[in-house]
């Protein structure tokens, strides 16, 4: 039997955990050495970048590119944290500094040409041990957001079907690198014949050994750089059959850190921090935050969202702001520390009764202390709701969902069936946190700005700072 070996090494959803990257680099170095004769294909499946970290924020992602260059990948797929938190121009600038690897994504297109930009390819064919290995890249489907940034994103599973039909006759093995999530990966395996392997990401799932689902192997290596995936296959050239020899996720804690990468990251951290030490505002006095009750910074952000979106009401959860601000200069670095989430402002049209439900929930400990992971949220607890344009009277000791005695919107009683324009955050529209706030009739998203950009603008307005101390919630 003429069997050829194929080795795939993969990482995903590192989210700028730079502290893990030296161990990842050493793990990949040792695994490449172990399989040297087979010339492994080394892949990152997306969300390597995360603008919550100063190294990424201060460098526009170039710190991540420097790490990818030094680590030694063959290809990367942009995840939503790359594609939705950087503009196409910023992303092109960052990936323009790549060395030795290809950026691959088949469903993210330039709207003018209908093709990927010049720095990205829809697929790649690798040659290993006499095997032609076709690799398709796909990223998560968020059309409302991508269109605002100037992209045309197309359905990933339809794209996978089209590219599979194109590539299957040309290659021995067909791989899809998917930044779509485990459910989409399974759906792809069920609907599309001809995909041999799916390497997944996006939902941070860990498959310690690959699944065999509808004839397709599905693999994934968790998140935050804790694991590196190692897949070893044998391909029978006579029978045209792919067999899994071994598949595992290697714990990077079992590898020493790369000293070269540690040094590189220290340099990138220092350089990025210097860029972020630019002062953006000066405060005459401190402004605090309280996740359990209204506070100055929460009110300031709610008012900023209302103004940014030209809404009647501003609403945001207090947990978006992690710390208060001291008197004196406020830098971009400090704003990143207190408001790290890559969350965008948005305009939602909500009925009064939906707003009331959310305000009632904002008085309950089960919502205030609720922990949330993902969907852009980089805080610890959901926190109560901070508002602008709203006055609420409530009885703290009353039973849940019957605490509020009155709600006024800009001096008028809240009308249950009237539709209000509400400036808030995109996280709620995903059905996270205060669920009724995600039931808007229509939504307008504001990209590429984050809510910390809204807060920065507010901190430069002395009148808005003064108004942030005005009470909006009253006990009766």
From TrEMBL:
| Any coiled-coil regions, as ranges | none
Gene Ontology cellular component?
outer membrane-bounded periplasmic space
Pfam (any one): 5_nucleotid_C
* SUPFAM superfamilies per record: 5'-nucleotidase (syn. UDP-sugar hydrolase), C-terminal domain, Metallo-dependent phosphatases
Q: Which molecular-function annotation in GO is an example for this chain?
A: metal ion binding
The Calcineurin-like phosphoesterase domain covers which part of the protein? 8-205
List, for all copies, the residue spans of the domain called 5'-Nucleotidase C-terminal.
291-426
**What is one process in the GO biological process aspect for this record?**
nucleotide catabolic process
Its keywords, alphabetically, are: Hydrolase, Nucleotide-binding, Signal
Concerning its family, UniProt says: Belongs to the 5'-nucleotidase family.
Know the name of this protein?
A: Bifunctional metallophosphatase/5'-nucleotidase
Q: Which organism is it from?
A: Paenibacillus hemerocallicola
């Amino acid at each position: 039997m003429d069997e050829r070996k194929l080795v795939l090494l993969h990482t995903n959803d590192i989210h700028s955990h730079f502290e893990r990257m030296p161990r990842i680099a050493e793990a990949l170095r040792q695994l490449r050495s172990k399989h040297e004769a087979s010339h492994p294909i080394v892949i990152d499946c997306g969300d390597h970048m995360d603008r919550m970290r100063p190294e990424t924020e201060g460098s526009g992602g170039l710190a991540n590119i420097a790490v990818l260059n030094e680590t030694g990948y063959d290809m990367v797929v942009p995840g939503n944290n790359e594609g939705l938190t950087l503009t196409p121009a910023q992303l092109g600038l960052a990936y323009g500094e790549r060395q030795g690897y290809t950026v691959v994504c088949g469903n993210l297109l330039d709207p003018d040409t209908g093709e990927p930009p010049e720095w990205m390819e829809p697929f790649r064919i690798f040659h290993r041990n006499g095997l032609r290995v076709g690799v398709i890249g796909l990223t998560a489907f968020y059309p409302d957001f991508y269109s605002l940034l100037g992209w045309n994103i197309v359905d990933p599973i339809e794209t996978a079907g089209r590219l599979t039909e194109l590539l299957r006759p040309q290659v021995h093995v067909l791989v899809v690198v998917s930044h779509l999530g485990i459910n989409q990966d399974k759906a792809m395996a069920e609907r599309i014949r001809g995909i041999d392997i799916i390497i997944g990401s996006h939902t941070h799932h860990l498959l310690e050994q690959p699944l065999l689902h509808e004839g397709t192997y599905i693999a994934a290596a968790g998140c935050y750089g804790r694991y590196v995936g190692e897949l070893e296959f044998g391909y029978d050239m006579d029978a045209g059959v792919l067999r899994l020899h071994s598949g595992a996720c290697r714990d990077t804690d079992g590898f020493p850190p790369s000293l070269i990468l540690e040094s590189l990251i220290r340099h990138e951290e220092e350089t990025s921090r210097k860029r972020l030490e630019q002062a953006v505002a000066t405060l005459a006095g401190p402004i605090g935050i309280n996740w359990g009750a209204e506070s100055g910074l929460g009110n300031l952000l709610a008012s900023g969202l209302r103004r940014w979106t030209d809404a009647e009401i501003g609403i945001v959860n207090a947990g978006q702001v992690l710390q208060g601000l001291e008197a004196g200069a406020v830098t971009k670095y400090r704003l990143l520390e207190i408001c790290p989430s890559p969350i965008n402002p948005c305009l939602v049209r909500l009925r009064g009764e939906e707003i009331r439900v959310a305000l009632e929930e904002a008085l309950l400990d089960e919502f205030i202390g609720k922990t949330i992971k993902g969907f852009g949220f980089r805080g610890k607890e959901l926190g109560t709701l901070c508002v602008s344009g709203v006055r609420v009277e409530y009885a703290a000791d009353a039973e849940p969902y019957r605490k509020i005695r009155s709600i006024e919107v800009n001096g008028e009683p809240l009308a249950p069936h009237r539709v209000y324009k509400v400036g808030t955050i995109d996280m709620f529209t995903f059905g996270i946190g205060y669920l009724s706030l995600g039931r808007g009739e229509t939504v307008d998203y504001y990209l590429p700005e984050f809510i910390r950009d809204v807060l920065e603008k507010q901190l430069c307005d002395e009148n808005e700072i003064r108004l942030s101390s005005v009470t909006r919630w009253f006990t009766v």
